[in-house]
Amino acid sequence: MMKKLLIGVLLVNLLAACASQKPKEVAGEAKPAPAAEAPKAVEAAPAPAPAPVAPVAVDPLNDPNSILAKRSTYYPFDVYVVQDADKPVVEAHARYLSEHANRNVRLEGNCDERGSTEYNLGLGQRRADGVKKMLQVGGAKDSQIETISYGEEKPRLTCHEEKCWKENRRTDLNYR
């Protein structure tokens, strides 16, 4: 029996010695200052690599730096043939339409205020039809293109001089 008691006391002391709690300090008892330890170098964990970002496709129709941002062709007085300066614009729109069969465009022919209403409606239609032919030659389908003439009814500028008339003699390409 004594042997069992001795083993029990020994086990209790062993368990007490293994306890992780420090004994509580008695109030008023001076505690020695801890020795200054050299700071331990903490290795920073490497920063996680940024998640790959998929490139966002920008519609060239909405990119102000794209030639497709230009949506009008301009004409001299009483002319309906697309001018050399505007041919690259029309050709770029033709390529875009041929590559995007789901896109449609309305070509709106416009004139300045000079000339009769009937004449200007006809001239605006010829201007829109001229752009349509160029788009088709460039690969756009007939089903993607609608033409309309507004004649002099939708001026961009309303003054009665050449700087305004020049802006009003145009065909606008409006995507739908």
- Please compute the radius of gyration using only Cα atoms: 42 Å
Overall shape = rod-shaped
Low-confidence stretches: none
- CATH homologous superfamily label of the domain at 60-175: OmpA-like domain
Beta-strand content bin: 5-15%
Strand order of the largest sheet: 1-4-2-3
User: Would you identify the CATH architecture of the domain at 60-175?
Assistant: 2-Layer Sandwich
Quaternary structure state of the chains depicted:
single chain
SSE sequence, one letter per element: HEHEHEHE
Helix content bin:
25-40%
How would you summarize the topology of this molecule?
Blueprint: H1 2-17, E1 72-74, H2 87-99, E2 105-110, H3 117-137, E3 145-151, H4 162-168, E4 170-175
Parallel strand pairs: 2-3
Antiparallel strand pairs: 1-4, 2-4
Helix pairs in contact: 2-3
Task: Give your account of this protein's structure.
The protein is of the alpha+beta class and 176 residues long. The chain has a domain at 60-175: 60s Ribosomal Protein L30, Chain: A. It has four helices and four strands; from the N terminus they run αβαβαβαβ. Strands 1-4-2-3 form a four-stranded mixed β-sheet. α2 (87-99) packs across α3 (117-137). The radius of gyration is 42 Å and the shape is rod-shaped.
